């Protein structure tokens, strides 16, 4: 019996010595000291031992258990210390390394400019309305007093899907859709993407953005239009900004005008930015044509109104002094982070 216990002890100690992870030590403990372990098996066989030998055999078994447990605990402590050392080395923080920076998103210059324009007009009591980019020819042209033979409807200028459906060339169709609802008075702006068959260069793109405005009410005059746009220009470019209206022609407004503002770089004195004129063109406008009102079910004898439209990219280019429109679409993070 003593020899058998010695064999068990040596076998256990040899396995403990070879163990290199804590889980293996636990398996060894179970194999030798557990309820179904080898030492437990010997204790269960004590009934076959002569009564006078049982104390001696019991002492041998306890000594063997103590020896195995002692070596187990010692090996467990050594392995735990080694694992802790490895963990500390792998998780050490080098405070001299540069910090990891989060890549935070940034608003596009167009978005910044649009939010500024919307803030100004919402502050004057306007609502922001959006509409479809794929539009009917009727809403894009016919309802805006642009007849079938008008040059603007040339396929060289407009992206047609078929003879009745196209990619809108302006956001004016949104104004028509609102007028057709007959909920008067109307004070609205319609921002959105538009499409025209233009070559890409520093000032043109086949896809760009517009913001158009519309006011319909009783007794609306050109003076209301001038006052609105003068206030808008001061809010956008500074309180000293002045506006100038030049006669122009638009099929859907009469009378019509182009609007210039004093150069915000030189204050109207003339510089490279305004090409020496002291003025910068920013938008077109006019009184809504009576035909446009009639086609939308509004009586021009009772109601009148004005409309205006501006290129959002042009506002962004002017406000941030960008000299090439293509920079807005190239997604160069170095450029976009400047705004």
Automatic annotation (TrEMBL):
PANTHER family: PHENYLALANINE--TRNA LIGASE, MITOCHONDRIAL, PHENYLALANYL-TRNA SYNTHETASE. Residues 117-338 form the Aminoacyl-transfer RNA synthetases class-II family profile domain. GO terms for cellular component: cytoplasm. HAMAP family: Phe_tRNA_synth_alpha1. Binds 2 magnesium ions per tetramer. Tetramer of two alpha and two beta subunits. Mg(2+) binds at residue 254. This is Phenylalanine--tRNA ligase alpha subunit. One of its GO terms (biological process) is phenylalanyl-tRNA aminoacylation. It comes from the Bacteria. It is found in: Cytoplasm. It comes from Cuneatibacter caecimuris. GO terms for molecular function: ATP binding; catalytic activity, acting on a protein; magnesium ion binding; phenylalanine-tRNA ligase activity; transferase activity; tRNA binding. Its main location: cytoplasm.
């Amino acid at each position: 019996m003593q020899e058998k216990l010695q064999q068990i002890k040596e076998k256990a100690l040899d396995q403990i010595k070879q163990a290199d992870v804590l889980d293996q030590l636990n398996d060894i403990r179970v194999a030798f000291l557990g309820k179904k372990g080898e030492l437990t098996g010997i204790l269960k066989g004590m009934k076959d031992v002569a009564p006078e030998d049982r104390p001696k055999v019991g002492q041998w078994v306890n000594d063997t258990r103590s020896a195995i447990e002692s070596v187990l605990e010692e090996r467990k402590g050594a392995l735990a210390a080694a694992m802790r050392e490895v963990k500390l080395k792998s998780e050490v923080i080098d405070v001299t390394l540069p910090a990891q920076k989060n890549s935070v998103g940034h608003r596009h210059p167009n978005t910044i400019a649009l939010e500024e324009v919307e803030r100004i007009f919402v502050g004057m009591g306007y609502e922001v309305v959006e509409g479809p980019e794929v539009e009917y020819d009727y809403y894009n042209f016919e309802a805006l007093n642009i007849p079938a033979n008008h040059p603007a409807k040339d396929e060289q200028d407009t992206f047609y899907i078929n003879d009745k459906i196209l990619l809108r060339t302006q956001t004016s169709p949104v104004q028509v859709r609102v007028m057709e609802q007959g909920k008067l008075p109307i004070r609205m702006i319609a921002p959105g993407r538009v499409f025209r068959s233009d070559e890409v260069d520093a000032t043109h793109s086949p896809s760009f953005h517009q913001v158009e405005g519309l006011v319909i009410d009783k007794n609306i005059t050109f003076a209301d239009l001038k006052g609105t746009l003068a206030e808008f220009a001061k809010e956008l470019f500074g309180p000293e900004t002045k506006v100038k209206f030049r006669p122009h022609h638009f099929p859907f407004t009469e009378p019509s005008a182009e609007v210039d503002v004093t150069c915000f770089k030189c204050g109207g004195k003339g510089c490279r930015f305004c090409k020496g004129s002291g003025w910068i063109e920013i938008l077109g406008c006019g009184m809504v044509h009576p035909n446009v009102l009639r086609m939308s079910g509004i009586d021009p004898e009772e109601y009148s109104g004005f409309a205006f439209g501006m290129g959002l990219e042009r506002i962004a280019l002017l406000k941030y002094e960008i000299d090439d429109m293509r920079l807005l679409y190239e997604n160069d993070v170095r450029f976009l982070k400047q705004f």
